[in-house]
Amino acid sequence: MTAPGGTGEHGDTRGRDAGQGPARAVPPSTVARLPGYLRALHALAAEGAVLTSSDELAARSGVTSAQLRKDLSFLGSYGRRGVGYDVAHLSERVEVVLGLTTQRRVVIVGIGNLGHALANYSGFADRGFAVVGLVDADPDVVGTTVAGLTVQPFAELAGLVSGTGATIGVIATPAAGAQVVCDALVDAGVVGILTFAPRALRVPAHVDVRAVDVASELQILAFHDRRRTGTWEV
Amino acid sequence: MTAPGGTGEHGDTRGRDAGQGPARAVPPSTVARLPGYLRALHALAAEGAVLTSSDELAARSGVTSAQLRKDLSFLGSYGRRGVGYDVAHLSERVEVVLGLTTQRRVVIVGIGNLGHALANYSGFADRGFAVVGLVDADPDVVGTTVAGLTVQPFAELAGLVSGTGATIGVIATPAAGAQVVCDALVDAGVVGILTFAPRALRVPAHVDVRAVDVASELQILAFHDRRRTGTWEV
After folding, report:
1. Residue B192 to residue A225, Cβ atoms within 8 A
2. For residue A21, what pLDDT is reported?
3. Coil vs helix vs strand at B156
4. DSSP B54-94
């Protein structure tokens, strides 16, 4: 989970421009926070801000200033003392590191309530993603139009991925079908999978999986709630 | 983020039953993995399994055996060498630690596509949660029936939370309204918030927030995809 292409480990210590060191290998925990920083930077830009402080940016991102400064140091972005960070410059830097300078194409499999919500989510385009294909196994759903796209049958998945150049697949099916869908996405050439199905998925080493399980998130909240009530003993 | 009520730190080292040590303070990273273990245990139980090994349970949970054993040791559950873990016993133990022995009540605010998907998600009831209230600000949505519940106006939020005993609020509104909704949920007495709105939320110290931002998850996948293509230099 390091960035082997980073220049910092390989002898070239010259920054691209003044005040920017080279990017070092970025730890996974830092990568996971970068989207939040980018979101806050875009909000600042929309409000007309040209410069921001680490305190301001940290507060808007829900992290401490120290955490923010440490994370941005991995990107070679240190800010200038008494001046702060240039909002446009830092946004671009984070986008480059996240690989958002090219729009990524996404296929969604499973067009139930959740798949509908995802297909219609307007926030994807703003943040570097285009939903280019929808797939479902249900004959009643195939052929319907959702968010301007015609839902394709499962048999068309491979052709859809190769034809659109999609590199990311979203699994919004029930748990039972998720591994079959996952295998088909991987065979079709997808290299990143975001799954909402409540089960662990097996993938080859070159494929990354991010899992969102809503009930698990609630269970984690329940842990804190229970702890708070003091009924630890069983 | 420790469990101050845990017995391990406070002198009582007697386990509740043979082979079970007392629970120690459970680290947040372990808490975050417990729902996955519970999901795998329930799947094993559904298949009729009485015992399981750490290898089996780890594989189904998508973690290493070493990680699993370490996590379960925080719960005072060590398994028996050559025998493994008792599926029913361990499930119960995880449920107790997560606070799932009492059903938690959940209110959802924002009944768009995502709110519909969440309200209709059948997996909540199986996993310890009851959706007891739906709220929306749109007069066209208020009064409609979703998943057997009538959508209430925002003005009814406080009464709905206190009347139902809800302790968890789910925010499925656009980003712009999320902080106002969050404040209202906190004022109404909710102690856990799961938000899908793409912005950081401010809450008092006694309230826990879990945030799911789908576009952020895609951006994290994009990082790995970009890294893989080797175009690190900018």
Report:
1. yes
2. 44
3. helix
4. HHHHHHHHTS-HHHHHHHHHHTTB--BTTTBEEHHHHHHHH
For residues A196 and A119, membership in a common domain is answered with yes
Could you tell me if residue A37 is inside a domain? yes
Are B129 and A218 inside 8 Å of each other by CB?
yes
Q: Which domain holds residue A87?
A: 28-98
- Chain A residue numbers with beta carbons less than 8 Å from the beta carbon of B124 are 214-215, 218
Say yes or no: A84 and A108 in one domain. Answer: no
pLDDT score at A169: 97
Q: State pLDDT tens for residues A91-138.
A: 999 998 888 888 899 999 999 888 998 998 878 888 889 999 999 999
Among A50, A68, A98, residue at a domain's last position: A98
Amino acid identity for residue B50 in this structure: V
A72 Cβ contact partners less than 8 Å away, ≥ 6 residues apart:
A37, A54, A78, A79, A85, A90
In terms of DSSP bridges, do strands A145-146 and A149-150 run parallel, antiparallel, or are they unpaired?
Answer: antiparallel
Model confidence pLDDT, tens digit, residues B16-51: 333 344 456 888 889 989 999 999 999 999 999 999
- For A130, the 3-state DSSP assignment is strand
Query: Mean pLDDT lowest for which of A96-105, A202-211, B78-87?
Result: B78-87
**SS3 state at B35:** helix
Angle at A193 between CA A192 and CA A199, to 5 degrees: 150
Confidence (pLDDT) at A34: 93
Number of domains in chain A: 2
Q: Is residue B63 part of a domain?
A: yes
Of B7, B116, B200, the CB nearest to A113: B116
Q: Are A73 and A159 within one domain? A: no
- Same domain assignment for residues A64 and A116: no
A72 contacts B199 by C-beta, under 8 angstroms: no
What is the spatial distance between Cα A104 and Cα A209, in angstroms, rounded to a whole number? 16
Residue B217 in contact with partner chain A when CB distance is under 8 A: yes
Same domain? For B81 and B176 the reply is no
For residue A74, give the CATH number of its domain: 1.10.10.10
Q: Which two tokens stand for residue A98?
A: 């996240």
